Amino acid sequence: MYLSGTSKSNEQGQLEIGGCNAIVLAAQYGTPLYVYDEKSIREKIHSYIHAFKKHDVKFDIAYASKALCNIAICQVIKEEGLSLDVVSAGELYTALKAGIPASRIHFHGNNKSPEELEMALQAKVGSYIVDNFYELDLLNTLAEKYHQTVSILFRVSPGVKAHTHQYMQTGQQDSKFGFDIISGQALEAVELLNSRSNLRFLGFHCHLGSQIFEKEGYLIALQRFFDLIEESKQQFDIETRVINLGGGFGIRYTEEDHPLGTEEFIDSIVEAVKIECNERKLDSLPEIWIEPGRSIVGEAGTTLYTIGSEKEIPDIKKYVAVDGGMTDNLRPALYQGKYNAFIANRVEDDPVEVVSIAGRCCESGDMLIHDIKLPKVKAGEILAVTSTGAYGYSMANNYNRIPRPAMVFVKDGKSKLVLKRETLDQLIQNDLELC
Ligand SMILES: Cc1ncc(COP(=O)(O)O)c(C=O)c1O
Ligand SMILES: N[C@@H](CCCC[NH3+])C(=O)O
């Protein structure tokens, strides 16, 4: 049995997270319930900071808020002193409301609207990751309107196909994101910098994809970055101060997953940067920026569900349905994401039968787990699905008009409601009558 962070089986064999009994949490706040182990989030952040501090390099870690974005997590990020990456007005608004300094916000996105860019300019966000030629000109024009010279990075696609689900690959040549290096678009963008006086170029950014277990892709991307850095200097006299390798560091969802440790990833990235600079005889090391999302919050999240109906087709399949599903966790339906689960009130009971955990939506694809061996379950028991902390709530939806769940942060035996359960009235609050 694998339990991460502060999760453990207590003396009664019940699941405890952050010193809080999962059965008590389910009774107190209802289900489905997202439970976040705050200590484990902070420890993961510390492991990134520590991994960089071992080396003599300038670095910045920006939490990719798309993995989980609400006031509470932004407050943790602020307290821990990280930067934060946003991709929309909604994420930007949340970060600002949580008190993240605008200067620590990096604005991403492949189609930022003029209104979103103006909002960011008014807030004076720290940097813009410019994705395409349209945005390059739009941002320069808007920055001029606001009498600002803004710091930018170019997002480039380095032509690296990460070993991950196809929908999570973003660094390959045909990606919708960024300036393509191979066909020369990235260098064309660099050339334009000399005539865009409201843009201050910091450097290059790439993001290879998500849930990556190997460092090789990052190392190839780095070589392509450095070619670009040299060409930018030689051809257009443009200096690069920053290289941003995005996020993507994988986590453990089930026992089949064997992610690399934080240190191993960071050590090999920093070493590779030093080697490239040395071999190319560059005067100074660029700053190294990263943007982890999943690896900061993923394993810290557990979703508690109440078990309801069952359906058994003799000798074929047994379904066990819970009170949530694709509305609170779209990942199994979208990426065939795999998860592990326990009966929270009997964590250590021997598994005796193979069942499939079904969601409650009117979709055959609304399955949380296919074929998991569990103890014999009863209606009313609490099922805990682990490692749901990233891209779970952030991709939650109201299909079938199902309200989104509540969320608590737990630490040192205390729980704090950080997101209320949506109500039925909230579901119709924007509806208008036809007549
Ligand atoms: C530009 C960018 N940066 C960072 C991330 C975070 O990735 P991950 O959650 O895999 O660390 C993403 C999402 O994949 C992204 O699109
Ligand atoms: N949303 C995804 C990955 C894409 C992340 C954003 N580029 C997931 O749940 O795994």
Please name the defining characteristics of this protein:
435 residues; alpha/beta; Lyase, Ornithine Decarboxylase, Chain A, domain 1; TIM Barrel; 2 domains; nine-stranded mixed beta sheet; eight-stranded parallel barrel; 29% helix; binds pyridoxal-5'-phosphate; binds lysine; Orn/DAP/Arg_de-COase; diaminopimelate decarboxylase activity; Diaminopimelate decarboxylase; EC 4.1.1.20
Give the terminus-to-terminus CA distance. 58 Å
Global Rg: 23 Å
Helical content (DSSP H or I, runs of 4+):
25-40%
Number of strands: 21
Profile the largest sheet.
9 strands, mixed
Oligomer: single chain
Estimate the strand proportion: 15-25%
Number of domain modules? 2
Instruction: Please report the first level of CATH classification, the CATH class of the largest domain.
Output: Alpha Beta
Molecular structure report:
It is a single chain. The chain is α/β, with parallel strands linked by helices and 435 residues long. It folds into two domains: 8-37 and 298-419, Lyase, Ornithine Decarboxylase, Chain A, domain 1; 38-296, Alanine racemase (TIM Barrel, Alpha-Beta Barrel). It contains twelve helices and 21 strands. It has helices spanning 22-29, 38-53, 71-80, 89-97, 114-123, 133-145, 185-193, 216-236, 262-279, 294-297, 331-335, 424-427; strands at residues 8-9, 15-17, 20-21, 33-37, 59-64, 83-86, 105-107, 127-130, 150-157, 179-180, 199-205, 242-244, 287-290, 301-313, 317-322, 341-343, 353-358, 367-374, 382-386, 406-411, 414-419. The strands form three sheets. Strands 4, 14, 15, 16, 17, 18, 19, 20 and 21 form a nine-stranded mixed beta sheet that branches. Strands 5-6-7-8-9-11-12-13 form an eight-stranded parallel beta barrel, surrounded by five helices. The protein has a three-stranded antiparallel beta sheet with strand order 1-2-3. α2 (38-53) runs parallel beside α9 and α7 (185-193) packs across α8. The model has no long low-confidence stretch (mean pLDDT 96). The structure holds pyridoxal-5'-phosphate and lysine. Pyridoxal-5'-phosphate binds at residues 64, 66-67, 85, 108, 170, 207, 210, 246-249, 291-295, 390. Residues 40-297 form the Orn/DAP/Arg decarboxylase 2 N-terminal domain. Residues 34-389 form the Orn/DAP/Arg decarboxylase 2 C-terminal domain.
